[in-house]
Design brief:
Number of helices: 8
CATH architecture of the largest domain: 3-Layer(aba) Sandwich
Bound molecules: adenosine-5'-triphosphate
Oligomer: single chain
Number of strands: 20
Organism: Rhizobium metallidurans
GO molecular function: ABC-type ferric iron transporter activity; ATP binding; ATP hydrolysis activity
Number of domains: 2
Distance between the termini: 42 Å
Helix content: 10-25%
CATH class of the largest domain: Alpha Beta
Strand order of the largest sheet: 6-7-8-3-9-10
InterPro entries: AAA+_ATPase (IPR003593), ABC_SmlMolc_Importer (IPR050093), ABC_transporter-like_ATP-bd (IPR003439), ABC_transpr_FbpC (IPR015853), Mo/tungstate-bd_C_term_dom (IPR008995), P-loop_NTPase (IPR027417)
Shape: globular
Keywords: ATP-binding, Cell membrane, Ion transport, Iron, Iron transport, Membrane, Nucleotide-binding, Transport
Structural class: alpha+beta
Order of helices and strands: EEEHEEEHHHEHEHEEHHEEEEEEEEEE
Radius of gyration: 24 Å
GO biological process, one term: quaternary ammonium group transport
Amino acid sequence: MNTNSNEISVRLTNIKCSFGPTIVIGDLSLEIPKGEIVTLVGPSGCGKSTLLRIIAGVQGVDGGSVELGGQVVDGPRFVEPESRSVGLMFQDYALFPHLNVRDNVLFGLKKRSRRDRIEIATTILRRVGIEHLAERFPHSLSGGEQQRTALARALAPEPAVLLMDEPFSNLDQGLRERVRTDTLSLLRGLGATVIMVTHDPHEALSSGDRVVLMRSGEIVQSADPRQLYHRPDNAYAADFFCSSAKIQGQAKDGHIETALGRFDPPGCEVEDGPCTVFVRPHALRVCDDVDCVPARITDRVFLGDRERLFLRFEGLEEALAVDVTEPMAVDLCHIRAKIVPERLLVF
Ligand SMILES: Nc1ncnc2c1ncn2[C@@H]1O[C@H](COP(=O)(O)OP(=O)(O)OP(=O)(O)O)[C@@H](O)[C@H]1O
């Protein structure tokens, strides 16, 4: 796989797809450079899997065009899935139960000589770290080993783009994080172009070079994970990646007046008038400075490495969450806290 980032590996131009009267993808455009790992995230039914199926060629478009490696594969002309250089990896891995690990990997390499196929399979099994499992059958493998077998099978033909649909969701939490980290570092090392579907906001942020947030068949925002999290374009994107308390504000000359004080949030150009201020847990800090505001603790959730406190401030209906890492007395009822203005979001 190539890592020349100037080349576009996948180009979707104004694509549309409907099932009967239901528009599932409506006028969507997206470019993915070679070597980029993109996570596609959004609520259930927003069209993530349909988009993968369109790129794979198992679903056609009703309008627009799909290009892979500079070649049109759907739109004015249609290229069959088996003639597209696309690797697929599904949530359930779809391994062939009657074939051992090596033969599962060999399956996708039919067009080559037996000797070449064995050499390629051995190399990829080694890269993925399961060479020692080559003779084993899928039913005898752990979830993580099955995941690696499916990954090896998808990568063996050196596809121009690897499409992964919820590839880690079958693994339990502890294993999931480790397998995800290992898989992504392997894919980055190979310079693979990857589109990975997930419905998990944290997985999307931690896995993608770029995160594409979808809603109802459209792209809401496509950005670097940090930008998407810290500077979302709109309230939907802000809420998708982090729950926030919303407080009413009044904007005037770049300042925002709220029940918790007057702030100048950075990078926010809000028109004068009423606005909604999103207060995420990390936009609040427990402290004892003179400008801190007293609050009553209404609820606490112990999370191991931190504790989430819910604070009720005078003049605010909604409790605001804040995370603390220092142990707090269990009978503590009152506390003081203040806003970190640069972490506020205003819409
Ligand atoms: N073959 C089909 N015929 C009719 N409707 C379909 C078909 N495939 C998908 N849909 C509908 O298209 C919409 C998008 O489905 P899709 O599977 O792409 O969503 P998704 O974002 O991947 O959801 P999830 O996260 O739940 O898997 C859904 O409303 C689904 O019911």
